[in-house]
């Protein structure tokens, strides 16, 4: 399944590149002396972005516990809010909630929540096709049936292409690749109360610090729309 999703992402990116080339070639040439009208967003504006796509797990929850055993992947609902401090640089925050799938538990309620700070650098803000790169860092919470496992997201590499369809809106493909580590996880324990007849004591959980920590990542490919206010 991972190969299929990555293949779809590569095909989508290729299609977008062809769309960009076609759109740029279709732009009318300005006659000599005519005023050039740019569709790129102005520099000092509030930016609000909405993303979605698919995220693939890489690495382990902790040593000898693969993240892929807990999550097949998730569909993110991702919100960006930032401010253009220069024509090329945006500083802001991000937050996402991921609707996840658990390979070992059909119908289980599992999710991923991530939030933090970020910076985006736009390479050609004055053009219709505007590539960008970004870097972020924050916190991550993975919700399982037993409770929440959480830790720090040390780095989130980002990139994509904005197609500036107007001065107020851009759309295009994006990818992110995170480097994170979980520090706390739920541990199942039995209560001290008496066991019911024919059964065991009720199961409870407590949050413990992970001893054998390791790194994990999320690779996300999708589509992003950005509004300028």
What's the CATH C level?
Mainly Beta
Distance between the termini: 39 Å
Give average pLDDT, whole number: 82
Strand order of the largest sheet: 1-3-4-5-6-7-8-10
Beta strand %: over 45%
Output the radius of gyration. Answer: 22 Å
CATH architecture descriptor name? Beta Barrel
Tell me the helix content.
10-25%
Q: Outline the biggest β-sheet.
A: 8 strands, antiparallel, barrel
How many structural domains does the protein architecture include?
Answer: 1
Order of helices and strands: HEEEEEEEEEE
Q: Might you state the CATH topology name?
A: Porin
User: Using DSSP, what is the number of strands?
Assistant: 10
Structural class: mainly beta
Write the layout of secondary structure elements.
Layout: H1 2-26, E1 46-62, E2 65-66, E3 73-84, E4 89-101, E5 111-122, E6 129-143, E7 148-164, E8 169-190, E9 203-209, E10 215-228
Antiparallel strand pairs: 1-2, 1-3, 1-10, 3-4, 4-5, 5-6, 6-7, 7-8, 8-9, 8-10
Summed up, what is this model?
This protein is mainly β and 229 residues long.
Structure commentary:
- With 229 residues, the chain is mainly β.
- It has a single domain (2-20, 45-191, 202-213), classed as Porin, CATH 2.40.160.
- The protein is built from 1 helix and 10 strands; from the N terminus they run H-E-E-E-E-E-E-E-E-E-E.
- It has one helix spanning 2-26, and strands spanning 46-62, 65-66, 73-84, 89-101, 111-122, 129-143, 148-164, 169-190, 203-209, 215-228.
- An 8-stranded antiparallel β-barrel has the order 1-3-4-5-6-7-8-10.
- A hairpin with a 6-residue loop joins strand 5 and strand 6.
- It is elongated and about 65 Å long.
- The relative contact order is 0.20.
């Amino acid at each position: 399944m991972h190969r299929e999703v990555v293949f779809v992402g590569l095909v989508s990116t290729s299609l977008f590149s062809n769309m960009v080339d076609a759109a740029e070639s279709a732009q009318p040439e300005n006659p000599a002396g005519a005023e050039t009208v740019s569709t790129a967003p102005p520099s000092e504006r509030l930016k609000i972005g909405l993303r979605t796509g698919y995220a693939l797990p890489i690495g382990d929850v902790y040593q000898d516990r693969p993240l892929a055993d807990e999550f097949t992947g998730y569909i993110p609902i991702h919100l960006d809010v930032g401010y253009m401090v220069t024509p090329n640089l945006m500083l802001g925050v991000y937050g996402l909630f991921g609707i996840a799938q658990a390979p070992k538990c059909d119908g289980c309620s599992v999710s991923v929540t991530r939030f933090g700070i970020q910076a985006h650098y736009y390479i050609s803000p004055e053009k219709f096709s505007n590539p960008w790169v970004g870097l972020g860092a924050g916190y991550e919470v993975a919700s399982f049936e037993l409770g929440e496992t959480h830790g720090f997201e040390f780095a989130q590499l980002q990139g994509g292409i904005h197609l500036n369809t107007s001065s107020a809106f851009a759309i295009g493909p994006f990818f992110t690749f995170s480097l994170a580590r979980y520090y706390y996880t739920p541990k199942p324990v039995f209560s001290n109360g008496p066991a019911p007849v024919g059964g065991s004591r009720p199961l409870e959980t407590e949050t413990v610090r992970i001893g054998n920590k390791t790194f994990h990542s999320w690779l996300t490919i999708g589509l992003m729309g950005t509004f300028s206010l």
